[in-house]
Amino acid sequence: MPGFQHSLGRLGRLRQLPPEGDVLRFDAELGVPVGGVRDELHRELQRVAESLGGGAAVEIKVGQKITSHGVQRNLKPLTEVRNVIAIASGKGGVGKSTTAVNLALALAADGAAVGILDADIYGPSQPLMLGLTGQRPSSEDGKTMNPLLAHGLQVMSIGFLIDPDQPMVWRGPMVTSALNQLLHQTRWQDLDYLIVDMPPGTGDIQLTLSQQVPVSGAVIVTTPQDIALLDAQKGLQMFRKVSVSVLGIVENMSSHVCSNCGYEEALFGSGGGQRMAEKYGVALLGQLPLDLSIREQTDSGTPTVVAAPESPQAIAYRNVARNMAAALALQGKDYSRRFPNIVVEES
Questions:
Q1: Which segments of the chain belong to CATH 3.40.50.300?
Q2: Which pLDDT value is given to residue 53?
Q3: DSSP 130-182
Q4: Sheet containing 84-88: order of strands
């Protein structure tokens, strides 16, 4: 399928509708956001259908339906969020937050309803990256908060509730409580995906958050060098221990292209993400470049996907986001919303 590494049959379905006169009608419904490839997909389906229709007129509708996928067995999905995707890393400094915000924006650019939750309580960075520093969420009832909006994303962060220079000198239970409040007391509005920018590391806080947040899938961000891969492997194993599916690995800062001469160099080594993916039997979702413009754009509050949507860097983010959405779409769906809670009481 255009833009994806999987066929239409794996990512959706094609139904033949009753004809209208001499016009053959088909409906293609995809389980991934298709806004960025809709026209190309429509042309391809139109071509194939016309070749099989013996010259008859053909009408094809291309749409998307993002469904909920399973979470940890002891948790229930959020009411207004179909899928929670955790973006995590074994250590800090690998570009996890930059990757998270650009993947969220890439999904939104493809037509999905997307939110981002900044779960890095000690070092929230999404307010700066999305140009929301100093803003505060509103509340109609004093109990819940409305997410802030930026570049089409619904956004929530502890950074909206504290002064930018205020340190969070909190122990683990306080951090866990704060994250749960941000997650459950935010009035998310009918999201296909909620991207959670997880704190780095694999300690008590990260494990507790992984056990209490209903996650449909996780993505591990790493850089190619061995020391980062060692920590990334721990992060991957942490999610597996709490029964969270790992959608794949993103290799960030894969290579650097000199802005003066165009020479490309793997500053942090090469092939590390691919080796890790093969070792643990997960997908390498993509490789992202080390580029000065990415840092400049996120610092200015307009990340790469919206600042330079046709740049090679933005295209790399969009490809990773599509691979991530496809990996989730291929997983089992969640049916818990279809059934009521069953309570057995003694008479």
A1: 84-329
A2: 65
A3: TT-TT-----SSSS-BPPEEETTEEEEEGGGTS-TT------HHHHHHHHHHH
A4: 148-150, 153-157, 114-118, 193-197, 84-88, 217-222, 246-251, 284-287
Determine whether 44 is exposed, middle or buried from the number of CB atoms within 10 Å of its CB (0-12, 13-18, 19+).
Answer: middle
CB-side neighbour CA atoms (13 Å) of 258? 6
For the four alpha carbons of 122, 242, 80 and 111, in that order, the dihedral sign comes to positive
Dihedral, CA of residue 7, residue 13, residue 16 and residue 18, to nearest 10: -160
Which pTM does this prediction carry?
0.90
pLDDT digits (tens, 9 = 90+) for 31-60: 999 998 888 888 888 887 777 666 678 888
Judge: domain 84-329, CATH 3.40.190.10: no
Q: Is 243 exposed, middle or buried (0-12, 13-18, 19+ CB in 10 A)?
A: middle
pLDDT at 258: 76
For residue 334, the 8-state DSSP code is: P
Burial (Cβ within 10 Å: 0-12, 13-18, ≥19) of residue 328? buried
pLDDT digits (tens, 9 = 90+) for 95-140: 999 999 999 999 999 999 999 999 988 889 999 999 999 999 999 9
